[in-house]
Amino acid sequence: MRWLRPFAITALCASLAACSTSPTGRSQLLLLSDDQLNEMGQQAFAQYQQDVPPADQASLRYVQCITDAIVEVLPGEQRNLDWQVRVFKAEQPNAFALPGGYMGVNTGMLNIATTQDQLASVVGHEIGHVLARHANERASTQNATSLGLSVISSASGMQTPGGQQLMGVLGLGAQYGIALPFSRRHESEADIIGLDLMAQAGFDPRQSVTLWENMQAASGGGAPPAWMSTHPSQGQRIEGLQANMDSALATYEQARSSGRTPNCQRP
Asked: Where does the UniProt annotation place the signal sequence (predicted)?
């Protein structure tokens, strides 16, 4: 298949030109600039604020307190971002962080994360996505995948009905073979980054496991198969956290000894 060679060379060149490394040492493909991603994050955050009503000020102060404690231990460049936190009145137990330092937490998450340490696990995880530039990597991977399928279609004459059917299969393979595994990888990586961040800030990392036990109990067993999910299963996440717990506990004890003892009052 000679037509694959130019595409392979082009993809390799693009990868080398946009090569980066995540905080855990994993190689990444990053094609978008930080300015582009930050602008997207700002727009998405503004839209979410228009669509979902804000929660009460007491809930905001609580989440802000936890976020401030974690932001304080970030590396200088990330610590100096203009982190903006909002709490939204929504029952879905969800939280997110966007490029540029925009973070949102739904009140439904406060029903699952019942202590400051459990919520710190959520906040640390979301900040971990930003530190690892997962939004850039995911967008870059999707762009590269779309380009690759387009090149394959043009080069192999797949405009025929049979060819279109094969393209559908290739697209499904790209979804389950590339897009979703990247997302699961991002979630697992953000878990580990968040575990370390919460421990550095003086929050008990053992509560991250309790959080996912709460999530597991609340889900009622309705999750899709792990290989088709954009997130690892709760059990997989617990295993990943426990595998890194010894290091996190050592960091936690050191943080507490140095005076990092956050006391964020739940409303």
From this structure: 1-17
* Domain housing 89: 31-257
pLDDT of amino acid 2: 36
pTM for this prediction: 0.75
Tell me the average pLDDT across 11-35. 62
Residue 87 covered by a domain: yes
> Which two three-digit tokens encode residue 177?
């073979």
Spatial distance between the Cα atoms of 28 and 10, rounded to a whole number of angstroms: 17
CA atoms within 13 A on the CB side of 97: 25
Q: Summarize the confidence of residues 21-38 as an average pLDDT.
A: 70
Is the pLDDT higher at 3 or at 28?
Answer: 28
Does 243 fall in a domain? Answer: yes
Catalytic residue positions, numbered? 126
The phi and psi torsions of 49 (rounded to 5 degrees) equal -65, -30
- Give domain status of residue 253, yes or no: yes
Question: Token digits for 231?
Answer: 């997130």
In a domain? residue 3:
no
Look-up of token digits 């400051």: 116
- Sign of the C-alpha dihedral, residues 23, 29, 33, 39? negative
Domain count, the chain: 1
Q: Please name which of 73, 179, 169, 173 lies closest in space to residue 127, comparing C-alpha atoms.
A: 73
Q: What's the confidence (pLDDT) of residue 48? A: 87
